[in-house]
Amino acid sequence: LPQLAVLAKILCLLMVVMCGAVPAMVRSVSLYSTCSSGNITVIGRTVKAMARDDIIAPFQKLTTQSDDFSRKLYIFAEKSQRYICFNKRWKPVALPKKQRDAMCQFYETYNGPYLRYRSAVDNTKYLGFNKYGKPIKGQRGRQECFNFMKYNPSFSINDHNDWMTGNAPGDHHRRDVIHRKHHHQQQPQQRQIHQQLLAHRTKKNLLQSDEISRELITTHRHRHSNRLKQPHDELAVISRRRQHNNRHIDMSKY
Prior knowledge:
This protein is α+β, with helices and mostly antiparallel strands and 254 residues long. It has helices at residues 2-21, 157-165, 171-253; strands at residues 25-33, 38-43, 46-50, 62-66, 72-77, 82-86, 92-95, 105-111, 114-119, 148-151. The chain has two domains: 22-155, Trefoil (Acidic Fibroblast Growth Factor, subunit A), CATH 2.80.10.50; 171-254. It is rod-shaped, with a radius of gyration of 50 Å. The N and C termini lie far apart (173 Å). The model is unreliable at 16-25 (pLDDT under 50).
């Protein structure tokens, strides 16, 4: 029994060390507010929901972090190097790491197809923005103003459409490579088909020339036979004329 107790203590110590050695879970995201039609933007201490723009896009890139295996998350703004937290009046503000506390922790929950971020301190407080993009204090707002959609901040619908239509940079080169590869794959088949067509045409030409030569030979034979028959026909006509003349002479005597 004492040995089992020692082994159990060692196992517990190993588990604690392993849990402490596990790195934090980090994932880059952008949070889209359905009520304001804008992304959460952190500029300095201010937290707002603003439309996506190339200038402020770096301030809209966030990461959700977890220091342990619990479901508690920190929402960190990479550009501003600040965390989204609640102040004492439950207004969302951005604080540096040295001021981070439990008011900066959230639970990520689902509300139908949307996400909500509930305070880890008070289960009735949610992160939200009104239709003008201003942060909501407490729960004074419409329920849809606490809904968010998470997406990849590097995603661009224009780049996606260009990639789907083949107009993205580098697609022409890729299409040329694919075309050449496809051409090389089809080249033996095309060569075989071409050879078959040539053989068929050659055979057809030979048959046609053979038929023409046969027709010429037959025509020549007919002409030759007609020439041979022509003298006999003339002799027969001459003999018939002579007989007719002789008969005419005999009749004249009487």
